[in-house]
Amino acid sequence: MTINRRTVLQGTAGLAAGAALGGILGSPSAFAQEAALPTFTPEKGASLRLLRWVPFVKAEGEAWNAITQDFTKKTGIEVRVDEESWEDVRPKAAVAASIGSGPDMVMSWFDDPFQYPDKLVDVTELGNALGKAYGGWYDGLLGYAKQGDSFIDLPLCTIGNAICYRKSHVEKAGFKEFPADKAGFLDLLEALKKQGTPAGFAFGHAVGDGNNWAHWLLWSEGGKVVDDKGEVVLDSPETKKAVEWAKKAYETFIPGTESWLDINNNRAFLAGQVSLTANGVSLYYAAANDPTMKAIANDIGTVNLPVGPVGRPMELAQTTTLSIFKHCQYPKAAMAYLAHMFEADNMNKWLEAASGYCCQSLKDFAKNPIWTSNPILAPYAKASESLTPNGYSGPLGPASAKVMADYVLVDMFAAAVTGQASTERAIANAARRAKRAYRT
Do 333 and 280 have their domain in common? Predict the structure, then answer.
């Protein structure tokens, strides 16, 4: 794995993981009690394979694997966990669904399961039971799981996205408080560039950072890809305003952000090349647990993205779900594994080990003490509650999944800000691609 500091969490996160795997193990949790879940009797001779994204928080991955090993110890079922880069999970899962071979389960992104719902095992019984047991699913996440009345996957978590910035650089630029609106935010970006401490946001095919940024750019101005009826309305005055604002912001960025993937903003921030970006809390922990970066860690502030002319927060937030492929030879074993991972003690261990990087999908787990353990986590604590689904304001489904998977919005902004296309042509091209997906 070539992911450097973003995967390395020791110190604070390691302590959290140790407490989670040790102190809570074997005793009921005070913040989400164990509940009766359906019993699934695994098939004889079962073994399983899970495809998941590479952990950007080392302790999170370690906790997931430890809980998986506990499942194997209890059931005798071996579970192989394959880790792939964030960008590779989507195509590998799509290929597995298409050919009917490969991993039995996948930890996928956003509404990817809607690209192949007929290839997935119905998990409605477990989905309803988990919701009943643990306070209900968050509405935004539930939309990523249900097709009609059926669960085609289980929402696992939201990876919150917030602005991470160097407090001293922002203060030096003349801002005692972080701007709450887009006009003030642009002023800050221009001031940061002027003093030689620029910002940087991904305009490349970054699964999380690129999509989160592009959707906020559009939605904060009141633009949207489709309306409530699922009709494409991307070519609008609001979209034009969003693109024009993005072009001004891009002029203040460090060069090269049009090719950034999910790792690049972390590297640039930790190397001191940028002083402001948007990311999960992993960026803070990477600095906090590197002895050579204590000064940077102590200078990091986090805040939610500013509010635009639309007048309310409009943030995408990255979601991940768990699905079982129909080609799985041991579907009952797979169901038993998912139920095991969602049991209260296990889910709480995993959330604590993730140190705020993963926001729970079930409401009862909001009581986990991780969220009050560090003020830096405040912008991430409500990610599942406040997220806007990527299909906004239409329904989620194959069309919204295709628009997301094809980076339609990201490409629109990238083409315009780099001058590859005029604002009008970039929007028209994106609208045409969206219409092909929605077939309108």
Answer: no
For 257-290, the pLDDT digits (tens) are 999 999 999 999 999 999 999 999 999 999 999 9
Q: Domain of residue 77: give its range.
A: 4-158+318-386
Assess whether pLDDT exceeds 50 at residue 4. no
d(C-alpha 47, C-alpha 26), whole Å:
25
In this prediction, residue 25 carries a pLDDT of: 31
What mean pLDDT comes out for the span 86-96?
Answer: 97
Instruction: Supply the mean pLDDT for the chain.
Output: 92
Other CB atoms within 10 A of residue 85 CB:
16
User: What is the percent of the chain where pLDDT is above 90?
Assistant: 91
Q: How confident is the model at residue 440 (pLDDT cuts 50, 70, 90)?
A: low
Do 251 and 126 share a domain, yes or no?
Answer: no
Pair 84, 54: CB distance under 8 Å: yes
CATH number at residue 256: 3.40.190.10
Can you give the chain as a three-state secondary structure string?
CCCHHHHCCCHHHHHHHHHHHHCCCCCCCCCCCCCCCCCCCCCCCCEEEEEEECCCCHHHHHHHHHHHHHHHHHHCCEEEEEEECHHHHHHHHHHHHHHCCCCCEEEEECCHHHHCHHHECCCHHHHHHHHHHCCCECHHHHHCCEECCEECCEEEEEECCEEEEEHHHHHHCCCCCCCCEHHHHHHHHHHHHHCCCCECCCCCCCCCHHHHHHHHHHHCCCCCCECCCCCECCCCHHHHHHHHHHHHHHCCECCCHHHCCCCHHHHHHHCCCCCEEEECCHHHHHHHCCHHHHHHHHCEEEECCCECCCCCCCCCCEEEEEEEECCCCCHHHHHHHHHHHHCHHHHHHHHHHHCCCCEECEHHHHHCHHHHCCHHHHHHCCHHHHCCCCCCCCCCCHHHHHHHHCCHHHHHHHHHHCCCCCHHHHHHHHHHHHHHHHCC
Range with the lowest mean pLDDT among 2-11, 39-48, 119-128, 189-198?
Answer: 2-11
Same domain? 277 vs 296: yes
